[in-house]
Amino acid sequence: MNLDTYLVTGAEHSPGRSTVDVVEAAVGGGVDVVQLREKPASARDRYRLGRELRELTRAADVTFLVNDRVDIAAAVDADGVHLGDDDLPVSVAREQLGDDAVVGRSVSTPAGAREAEAAGADYLGVGAVYATSSKDTDPEGTEIGLERLREIDRAVDVPFVGIGGVTVDDAADVVAAGADGVAVISAITAADDPEAATAALNEAVADGRKRR
């Protein structure tokens, strides 16, 4: 699975545009992964949106994941799920979705990364790298910085994306520090041109990889 540019959806960050419109634009810009988040939405609404996004991403050969909700991931035939500290364990999600499902895990420390890797996570979302208003984080997981990414890169073999306040201006730094890609919400959803923003993030990731 390619993790270069990873979009986490959030309609609250893109007033005047639907999530479907944003995802279509991101696909046009070369996004690699789309995660359905939409925290304020009801389960029914997330299910309906998930069905639309599943068809869109399948046609574009883009990995499609669901945040937190293993049941919705199964219902819309997503490629997998992304889990946080308060969600089901990785092993239970794997049992529910099958051996071929992609199961990601949010972590912020080397110890957490090692634990998630041992549990069988396919990839990690590491952050919040920088300050972010998109997600509430505990003090240990807030603005962890590039050195923490380097520590996690040394601690585990499983691939990971840097997430939390990442923009096109610092995406290369995140990848140069060891991340395999960047996961963003507002850097794409709030951009004037989400397609161009996605393409620019891809370029930044490539630049960061050259700097390693």
Describe this structure in words.
This protein is α/β, with parallel strands linked by helices. It has one domain (5-210): Alpha-Beta Barrel (TIM Barrel). The protein has helices at 19-28, 43-60, 70-75, 90-97, 110-119, 145-155, 171-176, 186-189, 194-210; strands at residues 5-8, 33-36, 63-67, 80-83, 102-107, 123-126, 160-163, 181-184. The protein has an eight-stranded parallel barrel with strand order 1-2-3-4-5-6-7-8, surrounded by four helices. α1 (19-28) packs parallel to α2 (43-60) and α5 (110-119) packs parallel to α6. The longest helix is centred in the N-terminal third of the chain and has 18 residues, at 43-60. The radius of gyration is 16 Å and the shape is globular. It starts with a strand and ends with a helix. The model has no long low-confidence stretch (mean pLDDT 95).
Describe the secondary-structure layout.
Blueprint: E1 5-8, H1 19-28, E2 33-36, H2 43-60, E3 63-67, H3 70-75, E4 80-83, H4 90-97, E5 102-107, H5 110-119, E6 123-126, H6 145-155, E7 160-163, H7 171-176, E8 181-184, H8 186-189, H9 194-210
Parallel strand pairs: 1-2, 1-8, 2-3, 3-4, 4-5, 5-6, 6-7, 7-8
Helix pairs in contact: 1-2, 1-9, 5-6
Q: What strand line-up does the widest sheet have?
A: 1-2-3-4-5-6-7-8
Structural class: alpha/beta
Number of helices: 9
Might you state the CATH topology name? TIM Barrel
Q: Per the principal axes of the C-alpha atoms, what is the gross shape? A: globular
Largest sheet: 8 strands, parallel, barrel
Alpha-carbon distance between the two ends? 20 Å
How many individual β-strands? 8
> What share of the residues does DSSP label as strand, in percent?
15-25%
Radius of gyration: 16 Å
The residue-averaged pLDDT reads 95
The parts where pLDDT drops under 50 for at least 5 residues are: none
Helices and strands, in N-to-C order? EHEHEHEHEHEHEHEHH
- How many discrete domains? 1
